[in-house]
Amino acid sequence: MIVYDKGELENLILVEEAHSLKVGGFIDNEQYNAISRQLATPKNSNNLLIRLAFFILGSFLYSSICGFLTLLSEDLITENFKVIVFLYTTIGFAGAEVLSRLKLYGHGLDDAFIVGSQLTLAIAVGILTDGNEMVIASIITITGLISYLRYLHLSMALLFCLALTATVIYAMFEIGTFGKTILPFVMMLFAVVIYFSSKTVVSKITNPFYYKGISLANSFSLILFYLSGNYLVVRELSVVLLGTEIAPDSDIPFAFFFYGFTFVAPLFYLVYSILKKDRIMFWIGFLTLSFSIYTIHFYYPILSIEIILTIGGVLLFVLTYLAIKKLKDKETGITFKPDRFSKTNTFLDAEILISSQLGLKPETSTGSNIEFDGGEFSGGGSSGKF
Description:
Distance between the termini: 84 Å
Order of helices and strands: HHHHHHHHHHHHHHHH
Structural class: mainly alpha
Radius of gyration: 29 Å
Number of helices: 16
Strand content: under 5%
Shape: flat
């Protein structure tokens, strides 16, 4: 199913591990370069700016090919415009296949054709079905999954998650008002299914190439679970989908549940991530907690934003200080020791920056009270006598 040579993909994983070892200080730059030269890997762009530049170049190439074919078939477009859009889709898939066989993996050029093929396919299906959202989402779900399984691009894994979620949402819309009413609970259940399914697949997977995509689906389920029960999201979507006006003294059904969920879910993420040492879940918990505070402030602006930011900064400083005092002497588990697999000179750089801005200079010795004798030879203070 994978279009790339699996041996080269394994070599790419080894090169990435070697880079982590170089960052951690276990090997030097020379050893890393020797490893990367000896292992044959697909052509990829680690620099995001270079990859973005190639993506723009690939987009121009894709659009130029489509434009050239449009000029050739100008007389047929008026009657067969639906066919020409499917032709654009075919060009995208063909270009992605050719570039992948040329060993371009995450290079930028292949990204343009892979993403462009999915976009033109969605447009073509929309034109053919008169904008049937459920059909579009269902087809993009299938093609997104196939594209990820074949090309291993994380953008396709994300597209699969979004399209599958959209398919479930539009399926609930087909039920009618009842489906829209229970939509938050269905989406929470759907997110739980994705989370545990991804956990099960990760524990049983034998092919390491799909690990990143499954991890992305796992993180996506955490975000989806929180947003499905967030009070602001549920209330605003209730107004849009159900067309109901909420009076000033009234509230949405199960309002207390959604109020509690808005804060309980982020706190659970934070506690559980610390216990399981899950860094991604910790950051998701921190971000969702921030959005929960914004949710309450959106409806109940008790304090001004300046005061809230000040109080939040003080609390963050206090919590950080207490955490550092608690963890600074720990050697195992959750510690304050620098991570060897990340840049460890952050605090040193900060100290240098602050010192330079404040005009501070390191202390130097102006003199010494120790008197040396002799020193006629290179003895540094010893004479020629015993």
